[in-house]
Design brief:
With 470 residues, the protein is mostly helical. The chain has helices spanning 7-20, 25-40, 45-49, 69-74, 89-110, 125-134, 154-157, 177-192, 198-208, 216-227, 238-247, 250-255, 271-276, 281-292, 298-314, 320-328, 336-350, 358-369, 377-391, 395-404, 409-424, 431-434, 453-469, and strands spanning 440-441, 451-452. The chain folds into 2 domains: 7-52, no CATH class; 69-113 and 173-469, ADP-ribosylation/Crystallin J1 (ADP-ribosylglycohydrolase fold).
Length: 470
Amino acid sequence: MAGWTPIPVLINEEKKQLVEEGVVPEAAEGAAREATNRLEAGTNEADVWAVFANLPRRSDFAFDEPSDLAGIRAKRNGKGKRLPFSMSDDVLLDKMHGAWLGRCAGCALGKPIESFLYEHNGMLSWERQKRFLTAISPSEWPLRDYVPQHSPAETETGKTWCLPSTREQIAFMESDDDIRYTVLGQIIMKHHGRDFGSSHVASIWLDKLGYRQVCTAETQAYRNIVIAADRFRRDFTIDEAREYDANADWHWIVHHLNPYREWIGAQIRVDSYGYAAPGDPELAAEFAWRDARISHVKNGIYGAMFCAAMIAAAFATDDVTEIIEAGLAQIPTTSRLYAEMRQTIDICARHGNLFDNFEKVLKELYDLLNHYDPVHTNNNAAVCVMALLLSAGDFHRGITLAVMGGWDTDCNGATVGSIVGAICGGKRAPAHWTARLNDTLNSLIVEYHPVSIKKCAATSAAIARKVISQ
C-alpha cells in the first residue's frame, strides 16, 4: 500500500521475488537471513541489500527474461504488425471517448471490492465477491451494476471500501492510481511527444505525485528517484533526457529495496501510450517500456508493453483474438508472462470462450496462477485476457468479467475497459455504466481535478493525430 514499508517486510518479499525469478530457493533463503542479521547489527541499507546480488540460478529455470528494449525485441515472435488504421477525426474522437469512459467505468466498478484481494475465510478472491453479492440476491451474480455498499455476508467476506464508487453514491470517477497514471501519461505525451524519455516520467512523478499516492514498486522507485532528485529536472529537453536515460543507474533505482518490481504497477500506467499510438502496437509497447523501466523489470515491464499494445490494437480491430495476439507479439516468447498467457488462452478455448463458463475458467486460472501475489502482473494479465475472450469485446461483459475475476479488480476493470471502450466508442458505450460518471473525473492532479472525461478524450485524440503525422 501507499507509504514506506519496513525493511524486514521488504526482505521477506525479496526472498519470494528472487525465487520467482529463478534463484535457487536455498540461496534466496540464506541471503534473506544474512540481510536480517546485517539489519539487526545496524549495517547501512546498501550493504543489507547487497546480499541479494548475483545469487545462483536454478539450472532447470526455463525462462529467459531480459529487461532492456533490444533484448526484449530480440526474443519476440517476430516484429508484430502495424494494423491498418484509417478513420475520420470524429470516429477517432469517439473511440478515444469510449476508451476513457471504459477505463473509468471499469475502474469504478472494481474499486469497492479491491478490498477482497486476498483469500479470506477459505474463499478465493473471486469467491469473496460472489458470496458478498449473492447474499444480497442471486440476481446480483454475475455482476450487473456497480457494487452495493453493504451485504448481509460482509462479516464473512469483509467490507467494501472506496464508497464514492459504490452503487449508492457514484456520481463521478473518484481519484485512483489507475486514473492518475492515465492522466500523467497524457501530460507526458502532450508536453514531450513521441520522443519522451524515462527521465521525463521520473521528473513528472516528482512534480505531480505525492508520495502517499503511489504503491508497492512505485513507492520504492519513487524513494530511490528522490535520492537522486538533484539529477532529475522537470525542464529536461529531449536531447538531455536521451543522454540522461543512457547514463542513469536505472538498475539501482529499480532494484534497491524494491521486491515489487514484477507487480502490476507498470501495467496500469500505460493506457495513454496505447491511446497515443492507435493501430501501432509496437510503438505503444515502446512508449510503455520507457515508462515501466523506471520501476519494474522483466514481467513487470512485459505486462505494461502487452497491455499498451492491446489498447493500441483495439482502435484498429474489434477482434479480441487479434488484439491479444498484437499484445503478445511485443513480449519475449521466453518469458513467464508469455507462457502463462498462452495457457490462459488454452483454458478459455477449452471452455468454448463462453461467458456462461467463466467460473470454470476462473477455477483453472486460480489453480495455475494463485501462487502469485494478488497484485502481481501475470495473474492479473490473465484475468484481462479471460475477460476479453469470454466477452468477445462486449463492453458490459468485458468490464464485469474483469472485475469478477478477482485479484486486483479495479486495475483489471480499467485495463479491459480501455480496450472494450475503444472497440465500441463513446456513442455506443452503455449509458447504464457511463451516465452516472457525469462526464467528471477527479484525479488529484492539477488541471485534472475535476476534469471532463470528454476533454481528456479530445486531448488524447489530438496527441494521437500528432504522433501519427510524425
